[in-house]
Structure formats: structure tokens, C-alpha cells
Here is the input.
Amino acid sequence: MALPLKEAFTARAIGVLWDAYKQTMGIAPYLGSGFFPASKSPTMDLKWFKGSKGLPVSLTPSNFDALATVRDRIGFKEMETEMPFFRESYLVKEKDAQDYENMMNAADPAIAQELLRQIALGPMDLIQGADVVPERMIWQLLCPVDGSPKIAISANNVDYDYNYDVDGSYKSKNFMELLEGSKWDNPETCDPFEDLKAAKKSMKKRGKSITLAVMNDNTWNKLVKSKKVHDYIIAKASTSPVFIEESDIRRFIRESEDLRLEIMVYDKLFIGDSGAEKTFIPDGMVALLPGKTALGSTKYGKTPEERSGDASIGNLSIVNTGVAIYTYTTPHPIVTQCIVSEIVLPTYERMDDTFAIKAY
Here is the structure.
């Protein structure tokens, strides 16, 4: 026989369901989590978060004159001790509970299990939404559209910037914005190989090694269509190729003595606050990295639910290192509420080992 809803729909049960759901749906970790592995911190203090030259990250109200340079602000419920605090909730209403109870008494208990699975999809969406937040943060840092790595958020109807480039040194040394005739959306005149080579050379002069270039598919397609890219490959070929494929371009970039770069195209989508689908990496941005290695870490703090959730009336579970799931039932009206919350912010110790190109 199926369990009563208040026993079946608990934070612990949802945590177990989440692990199974990830496997069933083939939900792989986001790319950014490999560069910024997750860790849990007993307390969060902004002075511990480092950016360029090891300087502390600054939190300031956004400069409204500069809003046009910011791609997307990440919506948050509120600020918690200077940390961005994400919280969303899902209600199991009386009718849902009544339907489940009716199914419990049905001849086939599998019907009740299926209804419970459908009810649990709500929290699954909330957990996935919580995972999107640090990934958006990571790519705002790796692909700063205005040259200065920052995390742009909105909380309590106020726009804030976490500025990781307080003295502007990253923008002056680790960022390249191409001029009009050189932009990659002009296939006749752009020269992506030279741009990548110039970035690598600039970093090499400071003892930094760049071996990986990450961009989205739109940006990669602009590189692929470049006339000069095709000319380079034809000039190097022992026999003139009839057709140049993407694999030929990847191989050339990987094997060229001046480049030695692995290309990674990252085109994963998320639903933005406006409801539109977006890529984590903005069009035209290229992140140049020192390989598939950690550049910092994604720090999770204790949410209010984790710190002071009432165990006598509720149930707590932690998934994905620092995402808190808290469930409780109110007597009048009888509703079961699931709260998913996180306090999260990346620290970026190896920021000076990376480079960003705004190609168009």
C-alpha cells in the first residue's frame, strides 16, 4: 500500500527522487561546475571571495548608466548577509492531497505512485532552477561582455553587481574587443586565427598558458565561415581540399604550432527570467582557459531553512552540495509546501589565468 502523502512527500523522499530523476532523464552536470566545483561553507563572508590579483570582490548597487553592457540580471528573492539568496516554493494543495488519498485506496497501488511522481515533478523543476543560478554566474564571470568579470543580480527590486575586477586590471590585460572590420560576423574580413593567436601570445608573455577555447554554436559558426580561416587551411593542405569541414578547422586549431587550442562548443540552454530560452555563453563571446581545470569554486552557504527549519513540523534534505529542500504541512488549510533554497556565489582565484574575447 502507498504511504500517506505527508510521509511520501518529504524533503528526504524528494532528495532520493531527485537522484533517480537525474539518472532517468540523463541530466548531466553543467559545464561550468567542472571549472568551479561546488563546496559547502559553514558561513559566507564576501571578503573571502577573490577576483583579479586576489583582491576581494565588491558588492555595489548597479551603475544604471552601464545597464546596456550587462547581459542578464539573475533574479533573487533577497540578499542574505551580502550573499544572493534563491528561494522558490511549490504547494501541494488540498485537491492534490485528496486525489492522492483516493488513489491510495485503489486496487492498483501503482496509480498512487504515478500520481506521487507527477506531484514530485514540481520540486524537480525547482531544483533544476536552483542549479541554473550558479551556472549563469559562472559564465557571466568567464564571458564578461564589457570586459570586467562581474555577476549581475536583481534582489528586492534593486540591481547589484558583484565586481570581481575592482581595479580594472582584468579588462586592461585579459580582454580583447574586436574592432568593426575584424569582428567575426564579417566573414570576408575577419581573421579568427590571428585573434586567438594574439590572445595566446599576450598571455604567454605573462607566463600564462591557454589551451582551451569555449564558445556557443553561433560564435563557432561565425569562425567556421571566415574566408581567411579557409584560406589558411587550403594553404597548409598538401592537396587542395574539395570541401572544408568543421572537423578540419578543429584539427587545424588543435595542431597549429601557433594555436594549440582545443575548441569546446557549449550550447546548453536555460529559461531566462523573461521566459525566453538563452545560452549560458552570450553570442560573440569566447572564453580562453588554461585547460579543463578548476578556476575557482562554487560556494554554498546555509540557507535560513537549513539553519532554523523547525524539525518538529518540517523535513530537511540537501542535494547538489548546497541546495536545501524543506517540506512542511499546514493544518488549515491542509497544504504541503516544498521550499527549495540556496545561498550561492563563485570564488574565482584563477581569474588572471583566463582571457575573454568579444568577437562581435
Q: What stands out?
A: Residues 62-71 have pLDDT under 50 and may be disordered. Residues 80 and 238 are 62 Å apart (CA to CA).
